[in-house]
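Data availability (excerpt). The following record was deposited with the supplementary files.
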Amino acid sequence: MFDKLMAAQQKAEEIKKRLDTVSVYGEVENGAIKITSTANKTITGVTINEEFLKQADKEELEELLLTAINKALASAEQVSATEMQASAKDMLGGLGGMFGG
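Predicted structure:
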């Protein structure tokens, strides 16, 4: 049983490392603002279109930045949850034999 727990912990670490290599994006106004994040929810890039920036006021810029960041983080959460579910399914399949199933 202890070996299974250690394997699960190691698998979780592997997933976390893999999620660091997966990029997700949040975009608003047809690319006026684009946020890049890892699937571990670390923001890695912010791109603001030059023409949009010239026209936007501070309040609009702040609001759209928040929207784009939240979209990127929601995408990261979705990728992370999918990875964790797949891993849990694999682990449960392996644990089934422990109970004589």
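Summary of structural features: The longest strand covers residues 23-28.
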